[in-house]
Give the backbone structure.
Amino acid sequence: MPDISRRAQQLGTENAFVVLAEVNALARQGKDIVSFCIGQPDFPAPEHVQQAAIRAIKAGKHGYTPSAGIDELRAAAAKYLAGMRGGLPIRPEDVVVGAGAKPFIAYAILSTTDYGAGDEVIYPNPGFPIYESQILANGAKPVPIHLHEARDFTFDVAELERLITPRTRLLILNYPHNPTGGTLTRKDLEAIAAILRRHPQVWVYADEIYSRLSYAEAFYSIAQVPGMLERTIISDGASKTWAMTGWRIGFTANAALAPVFTRWITNTDSCASQISQWAAVEAINGPQDAAERMRASFLERRDLIVGLLNQVPGVTCRNPGGAFYAWPNVTEACKRIGAADSEEFRKRLLNEAGVAVLADIHFGSRVPGEGQHLRFSYAASKQAIEQGVARMAEFIGKNTRKAA
């Protein structure tokens, strides 16, 4: 058999889907699993969005579209992105629609770095695992910037200054953040922008897919800082705000790179689903009641799960400022039950207690001195949250006695 390329063999993955497969396998065996592993809203897409898709199908709107997306969605997304970001001058021609927001991570890296040239990309650690995977796959050098629990999972801007070199081409920022739920404040972003002014060769990929799920304060984009719009790739989409993960609609804005991203889409997906694009037009332009109800529900669930986790022996949990993830510290809990690390804890919690979560190592190398963490997606019912955390507490208590 011919060889598989080294690039393909080394390509990373998103372990949320790996663990989901484990969960599904256990469920098929009849095991009762409470799952917090997958990061998607547990709501249906709003009814008016579903009806828009049906209308598109019946009207025959299900062929190819321009690679950048239908004009109606580019216009709606431009208005939406601008409105969410203080009225920035974002034009429809600056916006490109893709099959989800995820492909734009690769397109951004491909468009700002050259393969094997030693170009560097700085990205958050822990972070969405596809960042590091795509940096490596596309021949750039990954440079992690560590997020610290004592800073509510932000980084020290002085560390950013130290990490930037003449070879740095791209800085990836994600706020609100997956997996920690941390956020970057306006003050943080202004400090980051002040550093970047001294390094004009660096683009910024602003992963703002959770922009509508910011709880601590009103959402603010680094593109709103004076001088940053031109060099910022604003990435957002329909998945999290309108519960449209499987519809696969993302949109990205940058005036200089929009034509480049369009060519990448022509070379890869051709275009996003036309049916989904018309649904997304309705999601953006139509009533926002359902989206606001989802946000309110996530906020209630955040308060519930953080409160419950902080009552579990050996567990502490910071209050996340956005998204729908909790990132509890389980260092002491691991010691109590004799688990070597969070990954062993995760596996035992799944197989012995029927609770599915992700370990910190699924989101990058462990930050030195930061201990052991798990990720809970609280895009789950209140009943599931209560039941899952209760099972975790019982699991720790029972195994603490065994270890003693």
Remarks:
- The chain has a mean pLDDT of 96.
- The CA atoms of residues 73 and 281 lie 5 Å apart.
